[in-house]
Amino acid sequence: MLTVKAGKTDDIIFPGKLISKSGMKEGEKVKIDVRKGTLIVTKETDDFFALEGALKDTDIDKRIKALDKDWDKWKTPESL
Questions:
Q1: Which of 29, 54, 55, 53 is nearest to 42 (CA)?
Q2: Is the model's pLDDT at 54 over the cut of 80?
Q3: CA distance linking residue 28 with residue 16, whole number of Å
Q4: Of the ranges 8-22, 37-51, 53-67, which is most confident?
Q5: Which of 21, 20, 24 is nearest to 44 (CA)?
Q6: DSSP-derived secondary structure for 48-64
Q7: What distance in Å separates the CA atoms of residue 43 and residue 14, rounded to the nearest whole number?
Q8: What residues does 41 pair with on adjacent strands?
Q9: Which residues contact 44 (CB under 8 A, 6 or more apart)?
Q10: What is the structure's pLDDT at 80?
């Protein structure tokens, strides 16, 4: 169990073991969302958000359907 305390900054302090288990690093920027009373912690990386921005006008569902169609047509090569 953790104790929740209000602070004057935008920092959240986690126990070191929790940071280690989560794969986070001290000082790392993370995004926190609250969904149905659950905190969702997401690592914010510049590369991810750059990719997200680059794909904002792409119809991803169309691309996934095309990939699925090609995948279904693919046949496993016979072993030698």
A1: 29
A2: no
A3: 13
A4: 8-22
A5: 24
A6: HHHHHHHTTTS-HHHHH
A7: 15
A8: 32
A9: 29, 30, 31
A10: 67
Distance CA 20, CA 38 (A): 20
The mean of the pLDDT values for the chain is 81
Residue whose pair of structure tokens reads 């073991």 in the numeric block: 17
Query: Could you tell me how many residues make up the chain?
Result: 80
Tokens 């991803």, located at residue: 60
Tokens of 21: 């288990």
Instruction: State CA 13 to chain mean position distance.
Output: 20
Per the confidence metrics, is the pTM higher than 0.70? no
3-state secondary structure of 26: coil
Q: Would residue 2 be called left, alpha or beta, if left means φ above 0 and alpha means ψ between -120 and 50 degrees?
A: beta
pLDDT digits (tens, 9 = 90+) for 30-45: 888 888 888 888 876 6
